[in-house]
Amino acid sequence: MRIFGKGRHRPSASWRQATDRAFTLIGDGRYEDAGALLTRAADLEPWLSESWFNLALLHKFRHDWEAARTTGLRAVALLDRSAGAPDWWNVGIAATALQDWPLARRAWQAYGLRLPDDAEPGGPPTGMGLGSAAVRLSPEGEAEVVWGRRIDPARIEVLSVPLPSSGRRWGEVVLHDGVPHGERITPEGQSFPVFDEIELWAPSPVPTWVVLLDAATEDDRDALEQLASDAGYAAEDWTSSVRLLCRSCSESRMESDAGDGERADPHDHSEPGAPGPLGHATAGGRWVTERECGVAAPAELVRGILETWVADRPEARGWRDLEEVC
């Protein structure tokens, strides 16, 4: 018999029916109706941590962070254990969304994560050394998997230059869920999780531009990416870095050419019903000199970056049709 709360009890049949029906409604996007059922379930079994965990989960789906924090704290108060409990992870996400840093730090520690000894008391739980990861932007729409740096267990800074369809920019910080949906495996065998974005946490003031390049060689393309990086911004050759995947493939274990995650390449664009992995636009290994490139840079700098790039090797480089897209 499963143990709930402090004693050996089974939740009532009414609780189970209300909860099962609520999660069916959540799957259909009917959050308000699901909320009424989960509230009823909590009234039926208020001593059951799962009653409050389920409500906290619903509030997370609705991005109602105050309610998610309140119900999440009720759930953890009824736990027999803390380390590794997903209840604490949801509390950490809600606290991060609200910038309630003392609670976020408490949640990650209660889950079992170690925080740096020199971390600022009461500040955000940075410096945890979580490394690189991938994040799926707009998971409910035209999803796009991009690379980023994990700031803490619930936030990623986007390091790729996202496609304009995602509505996201290079340098933005997104709040993400705790359970990965997919992996990206490097040629060296290193695995990186793919997390789903929940919402934008901090916007970026840096616009995204699309430009058509004439780059005689891969080295010429790489030179532009390096030039943008040296200026403190980013450029990404979308012609070779973006691959189209179906949703099922995107959420699976996929090989990636991204090396150690420092190079934001490739990232994945997926649409419901897409026919499967279509590979890179440079199929067959032949270099195509015309490239579609995304550039993240301020308006007053982007043309200067491109002109400097051309001036270094004008016989092999050119650009045209620069357009701000996001």
Quick take:
The protein has 326 residues and is an alpha+beta fold. Helices cover 35% and strands 24% of the residues. A hairpin with a 6-residue loop joins strand 1 and strand 2 (144-152).
CATH class of the domain at 13-111: Mainly Alpha
Using only C-alpha atoms, the radius of gyration works out to 23 Å
Structural class computed from helices and strand pairing: alpha+beta
- SSE arrangement, N to C: HHHHHHEEEEEEEHEHEHEEEHE
CATH fold label of the domain at 13-111? Serine Threonine Protein Phosphatase 5, Tetratricopeptide repeat
Low-confidence stretches: 1-8, 259-265, 271-284
What's the helical proportion of residues?
25-40%
Number of strand elements: 13
The CATH homologous superfamily of the domain at 13-111 corresponds to Tetratricopeptide repeat domain
- The name of the CATH architecture of the domain at 13-111 is Alpha Horseshoe
Polypeptide structure, described:
Helix content is 35%, strand content 24%. By secondary structure, the chain is of the alpha+beta class. Among the domains are: 13-111, Tetratricopeptide repeat domain (Serine Threonine Protein Phosphatase 5, Tetratricopeptide repeat, Alpha Horseshoe), CATH 1.25.40.10; 208-255 and 282-324, 2-Layer Sandwich (Alpha-Beta Plaits). Strands 1-2-3-4-6 form a 5-stranded mixed β-barrel. The longest helix has 15 residues, at 13-27. The N and C termini lie far apart (54 Å). This is Tetratricopeptide repeat protein. Residues 254-271 have a biased composition (Basic and acidic residues). InterPro entries: TPR-like_helical_dom_sf (IPR011990). Residues 254-283 are annotated as: Disordered.
